[in-house]
Give the backbone structure.
Amino acid sequence: MTSFLVLVSLVLSCVGNGLLCLRLIRCPNAPSWAENIGRAFALGMGTIGWVVFWFGITGFLQPWYLIGILLPGIIYFLFFCNNFKLVSFPDFKSVSSVLLLLLMASFLMDLIEALSPPADADTLAYHFALPKQFLENGVINFVPIAVDGAIPLLTHMTYLLALELGGERSLTLWTFSTQIFMAISLYGVGRRWLSHKWALASILLFETTPAVIYGGGSGHIEIRTAIFMILGSMAIAESTKCKNPGLIIFAGMMAGFFMGSKYYGIFAATSMGIMVLLQTRKLQPILFFSCSVLICGSQWYGWNWHHSGMPIFPTLYHFFGNPISPFWNDALHQDFHLTYSSFVCVPANPLWLIWYPLATTFFPESCFDSGRIGLGPFLWMILPGIIYGLWHYRNRFHKTLIFNFTLPSFLYYVLWFLIPSNQMTRHLLPVYPIVMLGGIVVLYYITLEFKTSWCEHLLKASAVVCIFMGFGIHILFSLNYMKYYILQETRDMFYARNIGSYNVVQWINNNLTSSDRIANPTRYLNYLLEVPYIYLNNPKQLQIGAQSIFSSERIIEKLTGKIVTHVIDWSQIVDNMVKKNIYSVITFEVITYNSRTLGIPKKSKRNIFLIKNGIK
């Protein structure tokens, strides 16, 4: 019950804070209730995440302070939202009813995942692990781990709040709720052009996209930032007509919250900023947008800059003159680029810019990670209709609202691909619903205007095929979580068949105390460890400031200097471990999984080393 009350409080506070902010910036109402609710929620979610940061870095993470952050939004929603419109639906027909039933079934499967223990690797590695670590420390610390640690964490601050006030169940239900509001926002924006039926179909197409099925119910940030992108792009497009400064400020806040939640938000802010420049040569809108972005999105970059000497850690190491840092040096930077070069496996040139969308769908490279968690074939299936429609509208398409709405997404894609840091296709998820909606709108209007039956059949057939194919994938994905309830598993039983080396975690949690400290090289075990730990991302990071070359002795010296008492098996250490530093060794037979959905086990051995001069 506490978890549910915390969730309701968090949602009400987000909507209330958002409505208050919309009123303060004098942003006009959207045409539909759904888009208005989406705007309020997104603005409130970003605002709460922004506020928690300042309390966190000063050590005010106690429950009463966090409740105080929620109260203004709840009070405003309950007592001052006199003009808040109630949800209303048009009359349902047979097709709409079927779509709504399928959508409810899809949300039910997401809810089952939310009511189960979190099991996604990235979620356990840092999305949920970092908020948990901050709460245990009582303060937000700088975490100098490239990719996993020193990243913008604005949305993660809402995770922290949910975890502290309601526990893990509130946290997983909160991530589920953010996905629901993304769907509401997509429906609301779609209703600007589409019928009720096709707006529902667009939600279902999005919800059954493999990348959404994979990341929507977990701690992954892409689907949370998609709500910022779609509403910000819509506000920029709408401002071309009504010239309202409130829309420009709102768009800037959306871009800023995206930027504060993920480094790729810089591309979102840049693409929306380019749209502002294309719309006007006046200084005022540009200043409104730029100031909104900087105020809402720059705090985590300043935090990283203060601690590491660079706002984007560690990408800008050479650009900022190789700053002297206890966390980074030239040798580590070279090793970092060597390690992560595998994430950029095709050239970042104009030819591949055009070929990449086709390649990632039909000829995926391993670094695209799109074989199981891509964006699906829907856009390719309706491509002939899109080309036909754009040809007919070629003389006036650039003047339409849908063009201004979709252009920031294409600019985002160009920046994302040509400034490569990672070519995983799921990182395009924040812009996918915009492009998908644009394609549906083009075919929908070409059908209405020209009575082109083949376009209508193409759109319907493509939607049916992709929805049912995605729905089948969603059922397969959800079976893993359904077993948790069908088999009435305990938490340990669930993790034993989902998390590799979980028996090692069980031993640590049952036998060690807060006076011990674990050196852990396995990222997805971070959240599950209930004793203090150090995540060993790169052994060379332990050598910074050392005169000796890479050796096990230097690593042990660093580890014991941090009062590490146990080291989980790490080949780069264990192969050359100095015997005099080992107190004892415990060996486990462990099972690892390449896929928690398919559950294909592989047995191996894992050791825990007790360091002799650590605390016993």
In short: Residues 154-190 form the longest helix (37 residues). The two ends are 41 Å apart (CA to CA). The chain is about 60% helix and 5% strand.
